[in-house]
């Protein structure tokens, strides 16, 4: 019996399948990834795969749940602010689970059946930005603009950092933080108009 197919406790086997599915889905997305790809990646049979997940949709949701849990654990609760610790935490979350991060913020956005994940993350990040930015920007359209833009800038900056090969995380955190500050400062200009 090969080491990949040795009998594992149910929780370990499930984790093995989720890890493999995360890699497979991150490579080609939901639509282009078949369960045969996932089974091969995990080194299991279809029978074992179906013992854990009833369908490809169930498996993908489990992968996204796992990625969301990892993000929440690493970044913190939804009341986290865009301060000096938030960006490094976001980079850590992306660095420790790059495939999961890409699935949440790149692939799931393209899959209408999983839009609920994207909507939930967008709502949470916008709410956090709104609470934080309300003390820095007067109420009105520029606050609304910054509230929506800051989370997008942060996520896109982290995705681009991943795609660039994860150059120096300390420098990356500083640069992303400066980019976010630039958005905030641009919104604050409205008080001078």
Task: Provide a descriptive summary of the structure in words.
The structure is a single chain. With 193 residues, this protein is mostly helical. 73% of the residues lie in helices and 0% in strands. The chain has helices at 10-32, 35-42, 46-52, 56-75, 86-96, 98-107, 115-133, 141-163, 169-188. The N and C termini lie far apart (73 Å).
How many helices does DSSP assign? 9
- Parts with pLDDT < 50 across at least 5 consecutive residues: none
Specify the overall morphology.
elongated
CA-based gyration radius: 19 Å
Name the helix and strand elements from N-terminus to C-terminus, one letter apiece. HHHHHHHHH
**Termini Cα gap:** 73 Å
What fraction, in percent, of the residue positions are helical?
Answer: over 70%
* SS elements, strand count: 0
Beta-strand percentage?
A: under 5%
Secondary-structure-based class equals: mainly alpha
| Biggest β-sheet strands, sense, barrel | none
What is the average of the pLDDT values?
89
Which terms would index this structure?
0% strand, mainly alpha, 193 residues
């Amino acid at each position: 019996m090969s080491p990949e197919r040795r009998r594992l406790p149910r929780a370990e086997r499930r984790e093995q399948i989720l890890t493999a599915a995360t890699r497979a889905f991150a490579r080609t997305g939901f639509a282009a990834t078949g369960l045969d790809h996932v089974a091969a990646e995990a080194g299991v049979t279809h029978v074992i795969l179906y013992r854990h997940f009833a369908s490809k949709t169930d498996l993908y949701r489990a992968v996204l749940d796992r990625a969301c849990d990892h993000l929440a654990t690493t970044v913190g609760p939804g009341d986290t602010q865009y301060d000096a610790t938030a960006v490094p935490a976001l980079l850590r979350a992306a660095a420790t689970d790059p495939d999961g991060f890409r699935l949440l913020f790149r692939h799931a956005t393209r899959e209408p059946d999983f839009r609920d994940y994207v909507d939930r993350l967008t709502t949470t990040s916008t709410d956090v930005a709104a609470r934080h930015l309300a003390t820095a920007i007067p109420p009105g359209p520029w606050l609304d603009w910054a509230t929506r833009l800051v989370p997008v800038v942060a996520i896109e900056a982290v995705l681009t950092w991943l795609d660039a090969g994860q150059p120096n995380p300390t420098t990356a955190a500083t640069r992303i933080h400066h980019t976010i500050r630039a958005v905030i400062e641009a919104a604050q200009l409205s008080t001078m108009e």
